[in-house]
Specification:
Elements (H helix, E strand, L loop, with lengths): L2 H28 L5 H24 L7 H29 L4 H24 L3
């Protein structure tokens, strides 16, 4: 792996953990007051800004795309990631009856891999 690839991957992980912490915080605060799936969606919405700004400025800072273009693409990338997240979360929590926080964290991991690939090669293309 090149030094730039390592740097990009490291920043992706740090930005992702920051966004995951925001999403988890919102989820934890709301999960008993509303449907957990809705708490997950609201957490995702709040964490979106952290994710976009961090990935744009840090993870994929070598992008040649205009900010507006990468934002449009990242919205699609994030929504696809959230669809994978919500489907995984719902299956683990409702079907397998795993604890809600464990289900959320595993679902975020599923979405993270997809988001990295789409982010690097499309939303923040060089």
């Amino acid at each position: 792996m090149s030094p730039e690839g390592f740097k990009s991957g490291l920043w992706f992980g740090l930005v992702g953990l920051s966004a995951a912490a925001v999403q988890t915080g919102v989820f934890a605060a709301l999960r008993t007051a509303i449907w957990p799936e809705l708490a997950n969606a609201l957490g995702f919405a709040v964490a979106f800004g952290v994710s976009f700004l961090g990935h744009r400025r840090l993870s994929f800072s070598d992008t040649t795309l205009a900010p507006q273009q990468s934002l449009k693409r990242f919205v699609i990338t994030a929504l696809l990631g959230f669809a994978a997240n919500e489907l995984s979360f719902t299956m683990m929590w409702r079907c397998f009856e795993w604890p809600s926080l464990l289900s959320l964290w595993l679902a975020m991991g599923v979405a993270a891999a997809q988001t990295f690939v789409l982010g690097r090669y499309w939303a923040f293309a060089r």
